[in-house]
Predict the structure of Xanthine phosphoribosyltransferase.
Amino acid sequence: MQSLKDRILSEGQSLGSGILKVDAFINHQLDPQLTREMGEHFAAHFQDYGATRILTAEVSGIAPAYATGLVMNLPVVYARKKKPVTMNGTTYQASAVSRTKGDVVTLSVSSDYIAPEDRVLIIDDFLARGVTIKALVDIVEQAGAQLVGIGTIIEKSFEGGRTLLESLGIEIYSLAIIDSLDDGKIKVR
Amino acid sequence: MQSLKDRILSEGQSLGSGILKVDAFINHQLDPQLTREMGEHFAAHFQDYGATRILTAEVSGIAPAYATGLVMNLPVVYARKKKPVTMNGTTYQASAVSRTKGDVVTLSVSSDYIAPEDRVLIIDDFLARGVTIKALVDIVEQAGAQLVGIGTIIEKSFEGGRTLLESLGIEIYSLAIIDSLDDGKIKVR
């Protein structure tokens, strides 16, 4: 997605330790048209995968997942990082260690919003080490649903997430791939 | 917004202690068309207020704020509840006590994404006691920006949020108003 790559190069910042700051258009502020375009790209790529539901993780996955759900006309479920009091009943849970925040995050999804007959498309903001997406995959498996694809806005190829997820045999589609953040320089594939 | 009121009555649940569960279409799962419609209603209501930016709070404010930003073609900023490592530089902060989660939440917004010349429209999921929205208002004031309106999906009129915010002299628009959750019954105005 060229407009995204341009934006990463013009407004992204490499903060060191492999951290890419894209707060200007993904993680803190959203550009409505860029986000819409992300949704259109995900929807076009996965249109023939028979998805019945989109799953993402709060916080930064919500906007691109919703933008995709809007085009595909699919419900979007966002896994909660802190189980709210409204989440009663059976809950699927899986944990991941967040590097940008440094703590263990347990994702929770109510069994009310993911069914065994669902075909689930996972959408998230980053594919880095793949641990958050792996937790979402675990939740899909706990629900007995079928995972049909994984879409991420930005993949950091040097952090191994694709390798972690490859054994699933599932299509992984990233809108932009970053091959290096060394020396403060962002190298977009 | 009639479709929202219908949905609250058919799928909302009064859990006691004034808590309304709307996880099926706001707080855990999103209905793409209903969310789109919310954005259209907010955009229509506030179209002449000269907003230049939309401000919300993660998590559940993001989808309706983005849906509004998409129609109004405005950038959407979501205040972070846990300051991520990417949020360096000047940050505006304000605190609120979350009742559904029971702890103090400090909202953070980078000064990079809200400017003194901004005219800010606040969009959030609930207006209950008004403390989260009040924290967002504080952040707008810290930035020296002008608040032009407040839009919420569901207002619980019996929790006093509108009274708390009324002294601001700002338009507060809710898509649905709940007048009572007593005895497990949802009374929509």
